[in-house]
Records
---
Amino acid sequence: MADGSALASRRWVLSGRVQGVGFRWFVLNNAQALGIRGWVANMDDGSVEVVGQAPEETLEQFGRLLAKGPTAARVTEITTQDVPHDHVESKSFIVKH
């Protein structure tokens, strides 16, 4: 792959009203539509963690969707970091419970 289509791996932690509002399913549906591999999980502190792997431009688009969230959500804070490719063990996108 060349010209920006090389895979990147990224982790987002989203805080606010992000649990109990369909956020994980919103993430799952958008990730699958964009062809992103990875996972989403609720965290014990009330935040949602998302890890995805895809071309950089796809992850940028995904990040914008995460910041918006589903209708009932209200994202108040996002932390983002690049992670090693081996951090994404899934061949598809899954919801971790």
---
Amino acid sequence: MAEATTQEGTWIAKHRFARIAPRKARLVMGLVREMHCQQALDVLKFNPRRASGMISQVIKSAMANANEKEADMRRLYVVEARVDEGPSMMRWRPKDRGRAHPIEKRTSHLIVRVAQR
């Protein structure tokens, strides 16, 4: 996960090439937008989807980046939470009469930006 500071008081964490389809990850990412970070982690803790574990790690990483710059951890909230599409891996599935059909294994880039309120 990468760390970068964009503006004064905002911190970014990214998980690039996450092995989950962007459409599935966007369903979970929409739950945590504009939430306080601790509340977002609580929501993700009880969410049964596979993407919730990946997204909670990204939020924890963004909080750790903010903690290194001595931010007030109780005032952190999720400013931006988005899922971008990564490259797709092409695989082939054998079918009837010697044919092959493609299977796309999609990847995602999970991006979370936190700031102080």
